[in-house]
């Protein structure tokens, strides 16, 4: 058993006997409590049936909710299904699944003021330990507050048997920390956003451990899968300690969210979160490479020519791109939409003054080819084409994805300097 003991006391087990350990934990801490088990048809077959049988044999009263449908999404429909299917009283929720099932369950548990335990069926995302849930509301990807799980039980044989695409997606989510951590440092240096060196160190250790284990993960051996799951949970704990997703989510996640929202509007199948993040990380790494290549004289020329984009022009762009979600986007972007010419000049001067400190941050992001190589070694999607995304959608995400969050990232830096947001 591999214990992680964050400040909030979450019990974590990454084990070949996780189901037995789950039962023992429930007996010790929740004896006599109704247990509501949430899964979908795939995760029920992978692990949910075994969890349900083991919990039932241990004498617990259970409600077994298996979500069905062509595509399970973390939105109002499935949250309502769980609310209607569960008890109105005290209960313990078990989320047996990957990211979507966990988000549905954690939000339901939070709103009903009940605890929940995460039981991953694939090492595909870093959100198993989280105090927030990204939910789709009105076609918009929004993050809502929730509570963290009281425990996580990760069954190694189940994780190793997960589809290769989901294992590669987990690595993709971790590789996104290359750009998210760099974005976080840029935002702290140039935009005074809150920052924690201790949290960054924790997330970076998770990233480094995953990269070191790439080949072992690709081989799907116990050591490799354990390393990946540990990295995913450590990244999640970093977000938990900081209080939001800033340490592990930057421009690469904004591209991913943009693609997800567009696919939803077009009634197209969703793509694995980590797969999108991995491909987006390679795209954002191109921005970092372009900035690294700038000489100081080139930077000065670009800054002198750069002009503040008029507020009305930005609002028109947001309305055209985001449609019914435009009002929410405008609210999110208020600090940037309301920037005055004087504030814009001050930002440009700060970029120039701090460029010597910016350069080491840029250098923490590997070349895009390195990201692509690692994704290829995992057998995952390494290009937008492999994800089925057309060129227009890829360009749009880079141009407009930065509007989705009130965060200073490399894309906002690129805009301030006056470089094109894409390579087209």
In short:
The chain has 424 residues and is α/β, with parallel strands linked by helices. The chain contains 22 helices and eight strands. The protein folds into two domains: 11-162, Rossmann fold, CATH 3.40.50.1970; 169-417, Dehydroquinate synthase-like, alpha domain (Up-down Bundle), CATH 1.20.1090.
Mean pLDDT: 93
Radius of gyration: 22 Å
Q: What is the CATH topology assignment of the largest domain?
A: Dehydroquinate synthase-like, alpha domain
- The spatial strand order of the largest sheet comes to 1-8-5-4-2-3
What does this 3D model show about the protein?
The chain has 424 residues and is α/β, with parallel strands linked by helices. It has 2 domains: 152 residues, Rossmann fold (3-Layer(aba) Sandwich); 249 residues, Dehydroquinate synthase-like - alpha domain (Dehydroquinate synthase-like, alpha domain, Up-down Bundle). Helix content is 59%, strand content 11%. It is built from 22 helices and 8 strands. Strands 1-8-5-4-2-3 form a 6-stranded parallel β-sheet, with helices on both faces. It has a two-stranded antiparallel ribbon with strand order 6-7. α11 packs across α12 and α12 runs antiparallel to α19. The longest helix has 21 residues.
């Amino acid at each position: 058993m591999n214990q992680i003991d964050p400040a909030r006391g979450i019990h974590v087990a990454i084990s070949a006997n996780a189901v037995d350990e789950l039962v023992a934990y429930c007996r010790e801490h929740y004896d006599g409590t109704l247990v509501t088990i949430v899964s979908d048809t795939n995760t029920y077959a992978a692990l949910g049936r075994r969890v349900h049988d083991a919990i039932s044999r241990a004498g617990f009263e259970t409600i077994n909710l298996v979500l069905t449908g062509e595509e399970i999404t973390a939105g109002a429909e499935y949250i309502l299904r769980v609310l209607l299917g569960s008890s109105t009283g005290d209960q313990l929720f078990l989320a047996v699944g990957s990211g979507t099932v966990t988000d549905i369950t954690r939000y339901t548990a939070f709103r009903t003021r009940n605890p929940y335990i995460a039981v991953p069926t694939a090492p595909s995302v870093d959100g198993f330990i989280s105090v927030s849930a990204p939910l789709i509301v009105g076609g918009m990807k929004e993050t809502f507050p929730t509570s963290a799980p009281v425990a996580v039980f990760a069954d190694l044989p189940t994780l190793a048997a997960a589809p290769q695409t989901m294992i590669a997606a987990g690595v993709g989510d971790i590789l996104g920390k290359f750009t998210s951590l760099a974005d976080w440092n840029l935002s702290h240096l140039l935009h005074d956003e809150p920052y924690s060196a201790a949290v960054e160190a924790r997330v970076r250790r998770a990233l480094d451990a995953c990269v070191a284990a790439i080949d072992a993960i690709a081989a799907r051996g116990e050591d490799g899968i354990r390393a990946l799951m540990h990295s995913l949970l450590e990244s999640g704990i970093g977000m938990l300690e900081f209080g939001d997703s800033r340490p592990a989510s930057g421009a690469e996640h904004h591209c991913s969210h943009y693609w997800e929202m567009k696919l939803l509007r077009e009634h197209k199948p969703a793509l694995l979160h980590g797969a999108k993040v991995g491909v987006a990380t390679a795209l954002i790494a191109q921005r970092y490479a372009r900035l690294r290549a700038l000489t100081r004289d080139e930077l000065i020329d670009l800054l002198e020519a750069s002009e503040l984009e008029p507020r009305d022009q930005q609002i028109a762009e947001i309305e055209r791109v985001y449609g019914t979600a435009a009002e929410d986007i405008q609210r999110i972007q208020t600090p940037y939409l309301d920037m005055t010419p004087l504030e814009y000049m001050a930002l440009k001067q700060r970029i120039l003054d701090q460029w010597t400190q910016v350069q080491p941050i840029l250098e923490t992001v590997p070349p895009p080819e390195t990201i692509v190589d690692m994704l290829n070694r995992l057998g995952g999607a390494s290009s937008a084409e492999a994800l089925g995304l057309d060129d227009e959608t890829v360009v749009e995400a880079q141009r407009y994805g930065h509007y989705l969050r009130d965060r200073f990232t490399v894309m906002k830096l690129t805009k301030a300097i006056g470089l094109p947001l894409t390579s087209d």
